[in-house]
Amino acid sequence: MTSFQTQTQVARGERAVRAVFYGRGKPLFLLYLRTALLTLVTLGIYRFWARTRIRKYIWSATSVADDTFEYTGTGLEKLLGFLLAVVVLAIYLGLVQTALAFFGLFLFAEPESEAQVIAQLAAFYISFLAVLPLIFFAQYRARRYRLARTRWRGIRFGMDLAAWGYAARALGHLLLTLVSFGLLWPRQSFWLEKYMTDRSYYGEARFHQGGRWTELYPGLAHVGLGCLILLLSGVVIATTEAAWLGGLGVLLGLVWFLVGLVHYRVFAFNYLTRYKRLDETVTFQARLTTREVLRHILLGALAIIGASLAGAFLVSMVFGVTMGIGLATGGLETQSLDAPPAFLGVISVLTVLVYVGVILLIGGLWLVLVTQKVIGSAVNSFTITNVAGLDKIRQRAGDQGADAEGFADALDIGGGI
Amino acid sequence: MAFDGRYYDGETGAPQAARFELDRGAGILRLMVKQGSAQHLDWPLNDIRAVSDGARQGRLVLSLRSDQHTDGTPLQVSRLVLKDAGAIAAIRAACPDLDRRDVASGTMRRVVSRGALALVAIGVMLFVVLPGLAGTLAALIPANREAQMGRVVVEQMERLFAGGDTASLRCQNPEGVTALAAMLDRLDAPQEPPITISVFNHKMVNAFAAPGGQVVLLRGLIEEAESPDEVAAVLAHEVAHVSARDPTRAMLRAAGSAGLLSLVFGDFAGGTAAVVLSEALLDASYSRGAEEAADAMARDMLQQAAINTKGMADFFGRLAQSERFIELPVFLSTHPDTVAREAQARRFSETQTQTRSALDDRQWQALRGICD
Known about the structure:
Shape of chain A: globular
Radius of gyration of chain B: 35 Å
Structural class of chain A: alpha+beta
Oligomer: heterodimer
Largest interface: A-B, 87 and 74 residues
Number of helices of chain B: 12
Helix content of chain B: 40-55%
Mean pLDDT of chain A: 81
Distance between the termini of chain A: 23 Å
Strand order of the largest sheet of chain B: 4-3-2-1-7-6-5
Structural class of chain B: alpha+beta
Order of helices and strands of chain B: EEEEEEEHHHHEEEHHHHHHHH
């Protein structure tokens, strides 16, 4: 991160260069706050521009060999893509959901247990299953859009049009993962990543994903351990009197499992990066550590909890004072039916403001303290060998893609950035 | 004065060292690219744009105004990277439209036309397709399934009103139940679906209809009523709803539109609130027609049973009075204007002859004591 490093990277012909992340908390937090408020007052319409600007910041903070990435997407094209997706989804979702609600009523003739009653009510809201193929479709389209709008040294990234092929494969892999109780999960993550990587380009140069899916298994070790602890705790609860021991075990198993999930993601990221190639000659390295990611998540969560508690304290103070003023000036008369008590109005306005404020604060803190930090760690752990090979790569002809990431946005995929 | 920069021609990824001078008189940035075959480029100062929302301080990336299409295919992709503070300051002073964002012509037209298309699609779905579909599907549901569903809904409502209290809310004083059954008999409701009336021990002035012939009255409503005719009017109204299978249809329709609305509003802060609010508004607009039909059917039932709709008018009249102050009863919020309904019921009652009270005094006292 020092200027010394930056200088050495400029030296040409060097074999390997490290990527550097220059993002900082304060400017990003202020940018988030500004764009989130604009989103609020425009009833959500500005969210397309908000996301664009935050991406521009993150992209431009990412630097390889002293040249930063550039995000060329626009809010307008996101809005247009969203409107297109809304037309398609409105028709599809409306029909599918009504049909699902109907079959929810139809399927279980006589609910015999509490569970069946719950299942019946749940059927009203299972729109998720119906949109699953669309979610995978949208995931691919969203990645394709992001790549198409990413430039480095003026040369554009890109991806083939193959979203339906991806959706079909993703459904198949998901099914296999489910019936194998998660044992084939590495197979799913590997082949889906390979499908996308093998269709990605930088300029005219194609990416290639090598490696073997079985080599992702070591990364799953802690997930497996977590499951084992949960299983043992279940046995303890079922067979012995020591419920407290079982409960403790469940808690431990759950934490272990979640940490294991993070570890697997990090492991897979490092492994898959190591086996990516660009134009046959340029290779990559990533040395992200689970410890670092966990630290960001933990610190971010602590900060959010702290801020929320402080906010709650402040709010209760304000409410106390407002109530006090209301009672002192109006007394019990304000309870009569003749006039709506003014201070109730003040309180409801305050409540709405606090609700919105808390959501904005949590979103901003998470973006700055977790999302950006994790991206920063990932970028800083990244090395590129044979960076000179990038000089020869030629510009890529334009891709079509009028819907931007409309489907992903409409289906709410991709979170903050 | 000449400055240094790094130039990318947008054809290959190779960085090229460049020098440039600002000719403010001619309004041109003269660029000399030194590497490879040396070349001279003229960039008009008015067309120079900075890449926006950059995170790194002390650097500026310049591009030329590109006639960018809305699908993002730019015609001009060269970049000039500046790191020298003097050069950045000079550019900022010389280029008038550095931070301008160019929008391709015809974009507004596309936004408007696509926006209109999306609005039409959503409108047609919400107001034509979903209600129609819900109506068709409601007719297809087997009666026993609907009855089952109705019982679940009423149980859930009971839990909601109990507010975590596990004690049952059902009022089951035998004489009161008998009186209520007598009132239902008088109304001579349609046989399908069979009607089940429950009374909840709760102070709210309210009544509901649920799928499968389930009708719920709250204690507050019986207490608020000043005569048995008023209770009979509300009962007739709810019975009319269940006979028309309005609650079933409403549930099916809500399932479809909830997903649609959350799609439109996205996940911004307050997005959920916006969905809930517009769902309520939508519900109110649908219900208006159903409510008017239920009122008409209730008046007919009362007429058949020789019950004066003056009770209906009186009840609406008092609600119209109190609506302005007390918490708005839920069953009113989706209903037509109470004052208009009162007038309609009063006009109808003037045409009625030979009516008698819905319950005699003894039965009325029993009904009022149904929760004791």
